[in-house]
Inverse folding.
C-alpha cells in the first residue's frame, strides 16, 4: 500500500519537530537542558487530594465545558492574578487538554481557508502547524535579540492585511524568555481596537517571571477582554505537564464555538486532572500559591547561574525575564545552531536545542531549559565551557 498517498497534503508539508531528535538519543550519561518541563513533582497536596477522591468516587465524563467549580476558580484566578475580569459567567471558560488543545481549538473555531494569523518567531513549535491544520495561513513577524525578543508593534502593523483574522502572542515566550510590559502591550492593543482582529494570547508561562517583574496580560487592558482569547494551563505553574490540563477564557460566542469542536473530538478534559486543577487553585488561594513560589525561587537561582556561565564563555546571553529558558547567541563560534547542538551532544553529551527549531529568527542561538537540578546545570555548564574552549 502506498501509505504516503493516503496522507493529507497539509500533514505531509509539516516538517518533523526540530526538537525530538535531541531527546530520542538520551541515556544516563547525558545531561538534558532540552525538554521544557518542570523537574519538580506535582505538589504533594494536589496529588493527595486527587488520590482521596479516586478512592471513593466514580471517574465520569465532566461537562463538555469542564467542571463548573474549576471554571469558577479560574475566573477568580485570572481576576486576582492578572486583572483579567468582567467576564459574564463560567460560560466564558472552557477546560481543555493542556494549553496545546486550547491553541488547536481556537484555530479550528475561527479559521476559514486562507485566513491569516500573525504570530511571532522564534516561538513554540506548535503554532504554525496548528494554524495550517485549521486551514489558515501563518504569517510570521520576527523578533530580535537586540530588542530582547519583544514584539514590535510597527512590525505587526506591517503584517496586517484584510485577511488577518487574529494575532497570536505568547509572553513570556518559549524559547527566548522574553516578556512584554504594559506599554509594549498597549502598542499591540492599539492596532486591533476598533477592528475585527482577534488577539489569541498563550500565557502558559504567566507565573514564571523574574527580576521582580510581573506578567502583564493584554486582556487586562481597556476594551481588550472582548477581543481576546486567553490560553493558559496548569503544566508549568503547578508542575502538572502530564496531567494535561489547560483552559481558554474569552467571549462566550467564541468559547461556545471552541466547545463545539471540543465536545465532538475530545468530550472533556480528564476528570482526575480537573480535580487536580481544583486542588491547585483552592490551595493556592489559601496560601498565596506557596508551591509555585517555591519553584520560582529555585528557577531564579538556576537562571542567574546559567546566564552568568554563558556570558563567561563569551556566548552572549540576554537576560530573559520569563519562562524557564535561556537563549544565548552562539554566533561567535562560527557554527550554525544545529551544528553547535549536534557537536555538543556528540562530544560532551549535553542536550540543548538549536534556535532554528523555533523558526528562522532563532538561528544563531540555542535554547537551554533550566528546569533541571542545580547540580545538573553546573555539570552541563562545565561541559559547555570545555566544548567552547576546544572550539577556539
Ligand atoms: C508556549 C507554550 N504554549 C503551550 C505549551 C503546551 O502547554 P500544555 O502542557 O498546557 O499543553 C507549551 C509547552 O511547552 C509552550 O511552551
Amino acid at each position: 500500500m502506498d501509505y504516503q498517498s493516503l496522507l493529507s497534503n497539509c500533514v505531509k508539508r509539516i516538517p518533523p519537530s526540530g526538537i525530538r531528535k535531541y531527546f530520542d538519543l538520551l541515556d544516563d550519561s547525558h545531561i538534558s537542558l532540552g525538554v521544557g518541563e518542570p523537574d519538580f513533582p506535582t505538589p504533594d497536596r494536589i496529588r493527595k487530594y486527587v488520590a482521596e477522591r479516586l478512592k471513593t468516587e466514580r471517574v465520569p465524563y465532566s461537562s463538555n465545558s469542564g467542571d463548573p467549580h474549576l471554571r469558577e476558580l479560574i475566573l477568580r484566578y485570572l481576576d486576582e492574578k492578572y486583572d483579567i475580569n468582567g467576564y459574564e459567567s463560567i460560560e466564558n471558560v472552557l477546560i481543555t487538554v493542556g494549553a496545546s488543545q486550547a491553541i488547536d481549538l481556537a484555530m479550528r473555531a475561527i479559521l476559514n481557508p486562507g485566513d491569516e494569523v500573525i504570530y511571532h518567531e522564534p516561538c513554540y513549535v506548535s503554532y504554525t502547524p496548528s494554524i495550517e491544520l485549521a486551514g489558515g495561513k501563518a504569517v510570521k513577524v520576527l523578533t530580535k535579540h537586540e530588542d530582547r525578543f519583544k514584539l514590535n508593534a510597527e512590525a505587526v502593523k506591517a503584517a496586517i492585511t484584510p485577511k488577518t483574522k487574529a494575532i497570536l502572542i505568547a509572553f513570556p515566550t518559549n524559547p527566548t524568555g522574553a516578556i512584554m510590559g504594559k506599554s509594549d502591550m498597549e502598542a499591540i492593543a492599539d492596532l486591533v481596537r476598533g477592528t475585527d482582529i482577534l488577539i489569541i494570547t498563550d500565557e502558559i508561562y504567566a507565573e514564571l517571571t523574574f527580576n521582580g517583574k510581573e506578567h502583564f496580560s493584554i486582556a487586562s487592558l481597556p476594551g481588550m477582554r472582548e477581543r481576546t482569547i486567553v490560553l493558559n494551563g496548569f503544566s508549568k505553574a503547578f508542575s502538572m505537564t502530564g496531567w494535561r490540563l489547560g483552559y481558554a477564557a474569552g467571549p462566550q460566542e467564541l468559547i461556545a464555538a471552541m466547545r463545539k469542536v471540543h465536545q465532538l473530538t475530545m468530550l472533556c478534559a480528564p476528570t482526575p486532572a480537573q480535580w487536580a486543577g481544583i486542588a491547585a487553585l483552592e490551595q493556592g488561594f489559601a496560601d498565596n500559591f506557596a508551591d509555585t513560589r517555591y519553584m520560582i525561587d529555585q528557577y531564579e537561582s538556576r537562571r542567574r547561574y546559567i546566564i552568568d556561565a554563558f556570558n563567561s564563555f563569551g556566548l552572549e546571553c540576554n537576560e530573559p525575564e520569563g519562562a524557564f529558558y535561556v537563549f544565548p547567541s552562539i554566533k561567535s563560534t562560527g557554527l550554525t545552531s544545529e551544528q553547535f547542538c549536534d557537536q555538543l551532544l556528540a562530544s560532551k553529551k549535553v542536550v540543548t536545542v538549536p534556535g532554528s527549531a523555533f523558526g528562522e529568527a532563532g538561528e544563531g542561538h540555542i535554547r537551554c531549559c533550566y528546569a533541571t537540578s542545580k547540580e545538573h546545570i553546573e555539570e552541563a555548564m562545565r561541559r559547555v565551557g570545555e566544548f567552547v574552549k576546544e572550539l577556539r
User: Anything to note?
Assistant: The chain has 14 helices and twelve strands. The domain at 3-42+291-391 is CATH 3.90.1150.10 (Aspartate Aminotransferase, domain 1). The chain has two domains: 3-42+291-391, 58-287.
